[in-house]
Amino acid sequence: MKIDKQHIEERNQQSLDDHLESFDYIANRLTKNGIEVENVVQKLADFQVAIPSWALGAGGTRFGRFGFQGEPGTLEQKIDDVGAIHALTQTAGAISLHIPWDVPKDYTAIKELAQSHQISFDAVNSNTFQDQKNTTKSYKFGSLSNIDEAIREQAVEHNNEVIKIGNKLGSKSLTVWLADGASFPGQTNFQSALKQTQKSLQEIYASLPEDWKLFIEYKPYEPNFYSTVIQDWGTSFMLANECGEKAYTLVDLGHHLPNTNIEQIVSTLMMKGKLGGFHFNDSKYGDDDLTVGSVKPYALFLIFNALVYGMENNPQNPYPAWMIDASHNIKDPLEDIIQSLEAIQEAYAKALLVDQKALNEAQQNHDVVKCQEILQDAHRTDVRPLLQKARLQNGGALHPLKTYRSLGIRKQLVAERGANSVATGL
Ligand code: AOS
Ligand code: ZN
Ligand code: ZN
């Protein structure tokens, strides 16, 4: 399945006048305020987010799964789905694979397919939170943290295998998310679990190619409900430091206890040059993996404000790997991802409008009201015409979601794959 560029252009023509009118209005206003609009649009056009292979189907919940018709059943079809999202949004220029769910059979063919959609391979993800068909030892009581050396070895070996697979595809990073922890007090010894995890991560780190990065994800709870070995950014940061300079912390927005100040975490990590990757989503209660920006858009904007500041002022921090991490139960996954990408771009655009110089001055003068006004003024600006302009410039759709629907993409996918295809993944 491939979207014909011509069809996108035809749809764009229908709303081009409206777009130009709204773009001119906002561009004039921003220019008067000293903002280089072209610069902002170019930054939006360049901003690319990797789509996780596991979010293209309906993951469901532990209470059941309501399948979505036309789900991608193969890696090829997953790449096609990301290709469709990218054609419309011009923001999804990469895919993040999960091993063993996405092991390619024919590497050359997979790479060619991805290239034909202008998609690259972002971080590869290992999986030691489930027992796999070809493994002999169980991860029921942990993987990299397990007190049983043979289990740890198997988990380390799996990660090394994932690196090899990613390397053949052109990936440059490995993301490790561990479910390891304890469900009940006394079940594990905190110190030995952490010690073993550190040792295992160091072994994985030792097999990283020179130009690769290791991303260590943290999460306070779930699937374990008493303790998680890598529970917070501090633990991840400490482990990354113990591994070496190619190891970084990965921030997943859903992996914080309610009301945690994530923008402050982002700032600290960037100051220390250790923010490696990002998983976008939104949540109300826990790791809900909801559409980005659907619950707390102002918090997302504040996080982007910290990210923009860090990208401009912290050369010690590498350019972060942007990824979405979502799960779907009732929405068309592709529509949800299009909504998420729009929310990400919106928050980024608004953060780019923050007058950093004026904010700094107001901070120097302890003008608290002014500081808040500067942020809110940026956040209250309707930046959607800027996003449209960036997409148009790259050959995408002025209105990705409308175009997705009017082109009947889901119908085409169902016709091609059938109603009962099931995507592997969470
Ligand atoms: C799990 O909660 C983490 O967010 C992981 O990043 C991710 O969802 C998982 O690796 C997908 O299998
Ligand atoms: Zn995640
Ligand atoms: Zn998560």
Automatic annotation (TrEMBL):
Transmembrane segments: none annotated. Gene3D superfamilies: Divalent-metal-dependent TIM barrel enzymes (3.20.20.150). This is L-rhamnose isomerase / sugar isomerase. The keyword Transport does not apply. It comes from the Bacteria. InterPro entries: L-rhamnose_isomerase, Xyl_isomerase-like_sf. One of its GO terms (molecular function) is isomerase activity. It comes from Pricia antarctica. The lineage of its organism: Bacteria, Pseudomonadati, Bacteroidota, Flavobacteriia, Flavobacteriales. Keywords: Isomerase, Manganese, Metal-binding.
